[in-house]
Amino acid sequence: MTTWKELTGLAPRIAAVFARRHAATGKLCLLATIRADGFPRISPMEPVIFEDQLWIMGMPDTAKFRDLARDPRFCLHTATVDTHLADGDAKLWGVVTDVRDEAVHARFAQALFEESGMDLRGQLPFDHLYAADLTSASSIALHGGQLEITVWKRGEPERVVVKR
């Protein structure tokens, strides 16, 4: 399993772009899942980094969480608001694991309350609290008028492709 903390060491350029865009949009990202009919589904969501792990959670009994329960593969894309990508953007691919540990749920709810004021502490355990196992990632950033595409795949070093 590749955690968020591990990704920051293995692919620091991508992790930095993801973290910057994640913070700049109030944590808003787009989650791609696979529907039962095999077509992709795109859903807005706010992933959380907690205890060095990327977590995907949200309102229970939604289509995106039914998708993940059936097929754990996902892609998470930072919300892009600038068509020129001046601030860059990033994508993370992986699979989720539904963590059922009530102690983790309680710590997560407490941290969420302390950070945002959202109080889910009395709603434990959650229907789903998905830990992301990251398998690949990419980012795009502009540097000196050049487009730099950074790519990471598990088992390989982060690499940069420059487009002029």
UniProtKB/TrEMBL annotation:
Domain Pyridoxamine 5'-phosphate oxidase N-terminal, first and last residues per copy: 27-116
Keyword Oxidoreductase: yes
InterPro entries per record: F420H2_bilvrd_red/Heme_oxyg, Pyridox_Oxase_N, Split_barrel_FMN-bd
Origin superkingdom: Bacteria
Assigned keywords, A-Z: Oxidoreductase
Pfam families in UniProt: PNPOx_N (PF01243)
Signal peptide: none
Keyword Metal-binding included in the entry's annotation: no
Name of the protein in its database record: Pyridoxamine 5'-phosphate oxidase family protein
